Amino acid sequence: TQLLEQSPQFLSIQEGENLTVYCNSSSVFSSLQWYRQEPGEGPVLLVTVVTGGEVKKLKRLTFQFGDARKDSSLHITAAQPGDTGLYLCAGARTDSWGKLQFGAGTQVVVTP
Amino acid sequence: GAGVSQSPRYKVAKRGQDVALRCDPISGHVSLFWYQQALGQGPEFLTYFQNEAQLDKSGLPSDRFFAERPEGSVSTLKIQRTQQEDSAVYLCASSLGEYNEQFFGPGTRLTVL
Lengths: 112, 113
Fold this sequence. Notes:
Chain A has strands spanning about 5, 10-15, 20-25, 30-35, 45-50, 55-60, 60-65, 70-75, 85-95, 95-100, 105-110.
């Protein structure tokens, strides 16, 4: 059972469309990270959020950390085929810094 | 190299064999982590080290799994008497920062026949 629930599990969109991926938990996290993973490779860190209500932008990607630090979202504007991949959220609880808990991931496919 | 490296990239073992998976972290990274990733799932935490000290091994699924990092650099994950359910990708990561931002290797895909 994953501590972090991601939705949707799978998302297929056309190039130029927008998308949002959600990451929810009943636990409070001291920090939350988003990673992207491509087949045959390890996850690559996109962003870390640490403050409740925080919003971070990375080009066309916008990340938000919930006020209560239990949930997060990733929004991609004008998606491109290069955005295709498995998006994973991962949280670190205050009482277990080293034990990063991952969600099951959202598979995003962007077609030209 | 600049990133985390793992070897071998692929390993096929017969049920009951012992295997050893190696991880070379980014130079200077104090913390090192092992994860198991099943097909279609996110990584599941196995264990982590700070330098040579194993601070949390709560994710190791059984006493057949053993990890070490004797000199605080390279780490080895050993699985004894492999079972079919051990088939998965084993990921290693290292980190340096306050917020445990992790840099992953490409993983070792283990297939137990």
